[in-house]
Amino acid sequence: MAWQFGRGYSSCPMSAAETSDNSPQGKTDFGKTDFGGTDFGFRRVSEEEKAPLVRAVFDSVAARYDLMNDLMSGGIHRLWKAEMVAWLNPRPGQRLLDVAGGTGDIARRALPRLAPDAGGRIVVCDANWQMVETGRARALDDGILRGIEWLCGDAEQLPFADRSFDLYTIAFGLRNVTRIERALAEARRVLKPGGRFLCLEFTPAVTPLLQPLYDLYSFRVLPLLGQIVTGDREAYTYLVGSIRRFPSQSALSGLIEAAGLGRARFRNLTGGIAALHSAWRL
Ligand SMILES: C[S@@+](CC[C@H](N)C(=O)[O-])C[C@H]1O[C@@H](n2cnc3c(N)ncnc32)[C@H](O)[C@@H]1O
Asked: Which end of the chain has fewer beta carbons closer than 10 Å to its terminal beta carbon, N or C?
């Protein structure tokens, strides 16, 4: 099958000049430690424990995940995702893998630009069947019958051959994997040479002016909202912890390059609350 390569950038109205990194953390102060443990939110757990714990979080919130995203971000996550797809710049006939794709927000936005009639295809791959099922049902309800394949799989061990995709996306997923380095190595492996990598993720620190408000929101409002909407306060306490322990923008760029992807760069979104990282398999 002949797939095309994706190249090109779109403008970034929200954040073009924002490429600074507000995190006080050092470049290696995250995730795995010398003791072999890893972070699950603010807790330290063994590597074996993390994936089942993360799965339980998304099992618990899957049904109300989309509603909660809108409520907790005031709808801004939609702008970030639109920006991700704009920067990705998918072309008709390309093949996109959306890892940790959850309920398919990225896939649904990218699909029209990939043009299923021209052979464009998306695979949404997520570790959690409940999330995938919710996404698949939502797509069917909206009349999306072709162009997207939904499957369960682990970002650290993708069930795909080497060099099978033109585009790889991961939105708010990298934070949840146990070994970020392995997920990035897998991204490189499944991308074709010339293929594009894009990651949308929260950042551990925002601009200093926003920080006090952001802390209040993160530690007080968000867990309460999670409790009211999903009945699971812990899931949203985990969310806050996983954000604070995630690598800073420049540290993540370093990991991306260490995984063998080239030309890594990032753009901050909305005062650095989230960031987009772009790289290529050269
Ligand atoms: C916050 S949701 C993001 C969903 C979607 N990408 C979005 O932006 O709305 C994180 C997703 O990562 C998935 N996930 C967690 N660990 C994973 C792993 N190791 N491999 C693949 N998916 C994983 C979860 O099941 C969940 O659906």
From this structure: N
Distance of CA 101 from the midpoint of ligand 1 (Å): 6
d(C-alpha 215, C-alpha 233), whole Å: 17
The vertex-166 CA angle with 257 and 70, nearest 5°, equals 80
Question: Which among 58, 122, 148, 236 is the best mutation to test ligand 1's pocket, defined by most ligand atoms within 8 Å of the CB?
Answer: 58
Record the tokens describing residue 175, joined without a space.
């934070």
- The answer to whether residue 132 sits within a structural domain is yes
Instruction: Give CA–CA dist 138/276, Å, rounded.
Output: 26
- Domain total in the chain: 1
Q: pLDDT digits over 183-205, tens only?
A: 999 999 999 999 999 999 999 99
Residue 19, pLDDT score: 57
In tens, the pLDDT along 54-109 reads 999 998 999 999 999 999 999 999 999 999 999 999 999 999 999 999 999 999 99
Residue 172 CB–ligand 1 contact under 6 Å: yes
Low-confidence ranges of the chain (pLDDT < 70): 1-36
Closest CA to 120 of 98, 151, 99: 98
Residues 113, 91 contacting (CB under 8 angstroms):
yes
Say how far apart CA 131 and CA 160 lie, in whole Å: 20
- Asked whether residue 146 is assigned to any structural domain, the reply reads yes
The CATH number given to whatever domain includes residue 181 is 3.40.50.150
